[in-house]
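User: Show me a protein chain along with its predicted structure.
Assistant: Here is one chain, sequence first, then structure tokens.
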Amino acid sequence: MDANVTASAAELPVDEPKKKKKGKLRQYSGLIFGLILLGAVIYISIHIGEGKQFLSLVEHANPWWLVAGIIYQAITYVASGMIWWIVVRRFNVDISLSELTGLSLAKLSLEKIIPAGGFGGSLLLIRSVEGRGAPESVAAATLLVDVLSIYA
């Protein structure tokens, strides 16, 4: 390397980015493909008889089973929040059960909406517990117990 060679940034050659010319059809090809795919999905869903079967099941369904399902799902969120509440109380951190139940609903919803192997929900749990005044070690313990409780 020659120590006497110096160049400023202004002296270095700069390649200008080349603009690609696209035709109108090629420019909108992704949009056109998406619309064709959407049309195909709608066509298939209309012409398959499962929709009629589903409506028949809904018409003849017992509404008490729906109520039982909603209650069962609510108990699931409360139980998950209660597991976390036991952990944070063990470390003398004051987070209410209602806050943790709401956090449980948010975590499980996030994991269903954006499936990323549970990473998004776990990050939400860690940041939310820390944001409520718990140290990192308590947040990590809460996540560890959460993961272990899935396999218990």
